[in-house]
Amino acid sequence: MSEVTRATFDEVMVPNYQPAPIIPVRGQGSRLWDQQGREYVDFAGGIAVTVLGHAHPKMVAALTEQAGRLWHVSNVMTNEPALRLAQRLVALTFAERVFFCNSGAEANEAAFKLARRWGNTRFGPHKNTILSFHNAFHGRTLFTVSVGGQPKYTQGFEPLPGGIRHLPFNDADALAAAMNDTVCAVVMEPVQGEGGVMPATAEFARAVRALCDKHQALLIYDEVQTGNGRTGTLFAYEQFGIVPDVLTTAKGLGGGFPIGAMLTTRSLAEVLAFGTHGSTYGGNPLACAVAAAVLDEVSNPALLRNVAERSAQLRAGLDVLSARYGLFGPARGMGLLLGAPVAEAWKGRAKDIVNAALAEGLWLLVAGPDVLRFAPALNITEADVSEGLARLERVCAALAAPREAANA
Predict the structure, then answer these.
(1) Is-catalytic flag, 222?
(2) Catalytic residue from among 112, 127, 133, 251
(3) What is the CATH number of the domain that holds 376?
(4) Residues 55-76: pLDDT tens digits?
(5) Which range marks the domain in which residue 50 is found?
(6) Does residue 9 have an active-site annotation?
(7) Is 222 annotated as a binding residue?
(8) I want to staple 184 with a disulfide (CB 3.0 to 4.6 A). Which of 119, 153, 224, 270 is the partner?
(9) What does the DSSP assignment read for 19-35?
(10) Domain boundary residue among 245, 267, 298?
(11) 3-class DSSP string for 131-182
(12) 105 is in an annotated binding site
């Protein structure tokens, strides 16, 4: 087998990514090891995906058992793992029907198509407007990236799909002014992940639900990043005291195995009748078997208690580092999806802090150029959080020292 290095990426891969200079080869829990055997504390969680850490024994067992039985049949047949997973999702949520796919973008694509078709068939072709919010992120297909509220992701891909409007997040008055009988759906993230880890307020969430009811529009919750225990409840909508009409989930649902799902009610599901939408790999037996094992774990009250406890520990530690070194401000977010906005002197340079952390043996994320993002495994231990914070403190001390020297 030929040797591969980070340089191999530049030789054979499309350059739409800029991966880190090291290549991880093994993971266990919340630790990773690279090709040179160096160990890292994982505060990134594969961008909020590896909710049970790496090589979780129940996930390995589920995958191994299913791999010896059945891998793929396509959707000309159904399969037992898909049906069992759908039953479990229905039992745990507001939903009555489930559509499986492979990613968050695909789940959102299905949700937006459902909303458009619902508006068209129930009210007429005029009801086709989708309202979204500035700094939102809903995927990278042409439709989903257009619904997302970050122009940098759509530049150069015009003409974009029409019938989409973007509004300020957490501004109920702006939404009220935009609502009319052409709106078929409002889509929102409970916490804008890619947009800087900005949580919706409870007041805003309730206002959005009320406005959707008033104007006969669907409320779509994009819980691709916030779902599956990430915020301390199975899904974040539970904390707002409202129920969406459609919910999308992916990322943590498979714990690292690709799977996505759109959840909705029986009456809305009827809009996507036979032949209106599909996915060759959606509901794949391997993915569904793994996701069922993940769902059992992330719906366990003991694990959700750990999310709350480790969130408090991580937030408190970040706040101490914020006050001590001044590289970033107090953390915000929900559960184990936290963001720390960088200080004015570090504006546009969040990635520099992430790179310095990597050199210190700590994996972090950014949420745009100005926010550090933390999305560790939901079962991360107290000891691993402490060790990660200790490594981050060394980073902060080293980066703050030149500035302090210059001011002396």
Answers:
(1) yes
(2) 251
(3) 3.90.1150.10
(4) 999 999 999 999 999 999 999 9
(5) 6-55+301-407
(6) no
(7) yes
(8) 119
(9) --SS-EEEEEBTEEEET
(10) 298
(11) EEECCCCCCCCHHHHHHCCCHHHCCCCCCCCCCEEEECCCCHHHHHHHCCCC
(12) yes
